[in-house]
Design goal:
single chain, 433 residues, alpha+beta, 12 strands, 17% strand, elongated, transmembrane
C-alpha cells in the first residue's frame, strides 16, 4: 500500500461523507504529484507538461504583445506624418487650398488640415544618392505635424518659410553623408519647358534640419521644403496637390468623410488612412492570427502530455485506486482526485507562464539591447522591421483569453484519464495483484 493510500486509510470512515473537492481528495492528489523513486518517470512527464504550458502561455503573451506594439507604433508613425484623410482636387486645380483647408479645419473632430505639394524626386550629394518624396509645406504646419514636432534632432525649423533650406530624415542624412548646413541636390524629370521639350530640373538646397520619426522607411524617404518653393520647383503655380487632414478619432472616418465633403463645398476626391494602408494592416492582422494559432500548438502538446502522464499514473496506481474504492471512496472522489492532478499542472504552469510572459513583454527592449551587446548582433534591424525599437503592448483582454484557454485545455485533458480511473472495478483490480 502506498504512502498516500495509507494516509487515506486512516480517515476511511468519513471518506464516503466528504464533500466534493474536500481536503481528503486534495491530499491524495498532491501526494501523487510528488516525485518518488518508484514513479519518477510519471513525474518527469508532469514536469514536461508544466514546462510546455508555461512556455506556451509566456510565448503567446509575448508574441501578441509585440504584434500589438507593432500595430500601435506603425499606426502612430504612419499617422504622424501622413494624415487620416486626404483631399485631392477634381475637375479644377486646387488653387483655393487655403480656403479649403480653413473649411476642413472647422469640421468638428478635425485637429489639423495641412495643404501640401507632393512630388517624387532624386536627391544626391558627392557621397550618395537616393529617391525621395518631397513635400512642400508651410512652416506653421510643419511645426504642428505630429511626426515632426519634437523629433528634430539637429538644426531648427525657425525661419523655414523664409530660407531655401530643406528638412530631411536622419537615415537619409546618413545615406547622403550630410549634416545641417551641407548642400543636397534635388532632381526631377519634368522641369522647365524649352524649345527642345521639357528639361530636367536640378537645384541645390541647404539642409536646415534633420529629424528622426523613428520609422526607418520614413526617415529615409521624406524631404520637407517650404510650400512656395515646392510650388515653383514642381511647376505648381499657386496650387497644392493634397490637403492632409488629421482627426481626433480615426475610427469614425465614415462620418467625418461625409462632414468634410459637405463642408468643403467643391468637387474633391476624399480618401482615408484605411484605404491607403488597408493591405498593410490586414497583412499584420493575418500574421498575428497565424502566429497565435501556431503557438497555441505548444499548449495543446503540453495538454497531450498531461493526458499521457495521467494515463500512466492511473495504470501505476491501479492497486491504490482499488483500495480507496473498497474503503468507501466514491467514483466521484477518484474522478476528482485525478482531475485535481491535471488541473494543478495546468494552473501552476499557466500562472508561471503568465508571470514570465509579462516580465519579458515589459522588458523586451532591454532584453534585446542586452542580447545585441552580449552576442555583438543586431536582432531587430530597423531597415527590415521599419521601427527603430522593439515595441510591446500587453492587452489585458488577450492575456485573459490566453489564460482561460490554457486552463480549459488542461481541465479537458484531465477528464479522460480521470474517468478511466473512476471506472476501475476494485475487485478486478485487486484480483490481478
Amino acid at each position: 500500500m502506498s504512502e498516500a493510500t495509507a494516509e487515506a486509510f486512516e480517515g476511511a470512515q468519513p471518506v464516503s461523507r466528504t464533500r466534493a473537492f474536500a481536503s481528503f481528495e486534495w491530499m491524495v492528489a498532491l501526494r501523487y504529484l510528488r516525485a518518488r523513486r518508484a514513479d519518477g518517470f510519471v513525474s518527469v512527464i508532469a514536469g514536461f507538461s508544466f514546462l510546455g504550458i508555461m512556455l506556451g502561455v509566456a510565448t503567446l503573451i509575448v508574441v501578441t504583445s509585440v504584434m500589438n506594439g507593432f500595430h500601435r507604433e506603425l499606426m502612430d508613425k504612419i499617422m504622424g506624418v501622413n494624415g487620416h484623410a486626404f483631399l485631392q482636387a477634381v475637375e479644377t486645380p486646387l488653387t483655393d487650398w487655403e480656403d479649403v483647408s480653413t473649411k476642413a479645419s472647422a469640421v468638428p473632430g478635425v485637429k489639423l488640415a495641412i495643404p501640401m505639394v507632393e512630388g517624387a524626386a532624386g536627391i544626391s550629394t558627392q557621397f550618395g544618392q537616393s529617391g525621395v518624396l518631397v513635400r512642400g509645406i508651410r512652416e506653421k504646419d510643419l511645426v504642428r505635424l505630429p511626426g515632426i514636432a519634437g523629433n528634430v534632432k539637429i538644426g531648427a525649423l525657425e525661419g523655414f518659410d523664409k530660407g531655401e533650406g530643406v528638412a530631411i530624415g536622419q537615415r537619409l542624412a546618413e545615406t547622403l553623408g550630410v549634416t545641417v548646413g551641407d548642400k543636397v541636390s534635388l532632381l526631377i524629370a519634368k522641369g522647365a519647358q524649352t524649345p527642345f521639350g521639357v528639361a530636367p530640373r536640378i537645384k541645390a538646397y541647404t539642409v536646415a534640419a534633420i529629424f528622426s520619426i523613428g520609422m526607418s522607411e520614413f526617415d529615409n524617404v521624406f524631404v520637407y521644403m517650404p510650400l512656395a518653393e515646392a510650388q515653383v520647383f514642381f511647376n505648381r503655380d499657386k496650387e497644392a496637390t493634397v490637403i492632409e487632414v488629421f482627426v481626433d478619432n480615426p475610427e469614425q472616418m465614415d462620418l467625418l468623410r461625409a462632414q468634410l465633403d459637405k463642408a468643403v463645398g467643391r468637387p474633391m476626391m476624399i480618401t482615408d488612412w484605411r484605404q491607403r494602408n488597408k493591405t498593410f494592416f490586414d497583412t499584420l492582422q493575418v500574421e498575428k492570427n497565424i502566429l497565435f494559432i501556431i503557438l497555441t500548438l505548444i499548449v495543446i502538446v503540453a495538454a497531450f502530455n498531461i493526458i499521457s502522464g495521467l494515463t500512466m499514473l492511473v495504470k501505476d496506481k491501479t492497486r491504490d485506486i482499488a483500495i480507496l474504492r473498497t474503503m468507501g471512496a466514491s467514483r466521484g472522489s477518484v474522478l476528482r482526485i485525478f482531475l485535481l492532478i491535471g488541473a494543478s499542472i495546468g494552473v501552476v504552469g499557466t500562472i508561471a507562464g503568465f508571470l514570465l510572459g509579462l516580465l519579458i513583454a515589459s522588458n523586451l527592449e532591454t532584453i534585446r539591447s542586452f542580447l545585441n551587446k552580449a552576442f555583438d548582433a543586431n536582432l531587430f534591424p530597423a531597415e527590415f522591421y521599419f521601427l527603430s525599437r522593439l515595441p510591446a503592448i500587453v492587452d489585458p483582454r488577450e492575456v485573459t483569453m490566453i489564460v482561460v484557454m490554457t486552463l480549459v485545455l488542461a481541465v479537458l485533458a484531465s477528464i479522460f484519464p480521470a474517468w478511466k480511473a473512476a471506472s476501475l472495478d476494485p475487485i478486478e483490480a485487486l484480483r490481478h495483484e
